[in-house]
Amino acid sequence: MFSRNRMVPELMVGDIRNSLDFWTGLVGFRVAYDRPEEGFAYLDFDGVQVMLEQYDPLEGQWVTGPLQPPFGRGINFQMTVDSVEPILQRLAAAEWPLFRPFAEKWYRSGTVEVGQHELLVQDPDGYLLRLVEYLGERPLSNVAAT
Predict the structure, then answer these.
(1) CA-to-CA distance for 131 and 29, rounded, in angstroms?
(2) Domain map of the chain by residue range?
(3) From CA 20, how far away is CA 67, in angstroms rounded?
(4) How are beta strands 112-122 and 100-109 bridged, if at all?
């Protein structure tokens, strides 16, 4: 068995098969365990964890309001990965649209700037993923990034 994180988001999805194709096939997560009969999968990608659950309005799920696409409005999930390049290649091969162009970004963090390659993409239900590759730190520049 693997170690579960102390906080793991559980996302309602419209079609568990489409979601698994995206999360495992394109992004690179693996199914740690699942309950196909319940439309549930617990995913892991080098310690980044998320749960997916097939939405069923007749099951009494923990839904706090109406679900309307795109799901997850107002949130993005930052996930640190070793390299964004293989993910970017798989998305390009599948002609999956990016939310924003792939970029190198530097953000002020106290007295330094922290760099990352950022890949922003939405899953089939519209959840926004920000996959980042850590680039290190540098002294603050004259014009700090946001």
Answers:
(1) 12
(2) 10-56+75-139
(3) 19
(4) antiparallel
| Greatest extent of the chain over all pairs of C-alpha atoms, in Å | 56
Rounded Cα distance between 137 and 113, Å, is: 5
Q: Which residue has the tokens 């098969």?
A: 17
pLDDT digits (tens, 9 = 90+) for 53-67: 999 988 888 888 888
Q: Is 84 left (phi over 0), alpha (psi -120 to 50) or beta?
A: alpha
- Per CATH, the architecture of 10-56+75-139 is what? Roll (3.10)
Q: What is the pLDDT of residues 79-132, one digit of tens each?
A: 999 999 999 999 999 999 999 999 999 999 999 999 999 999 999 999 999 999
List, in order, residues 6 or more apart from 69 with CB less than 8 Å away. 14, 125, 126
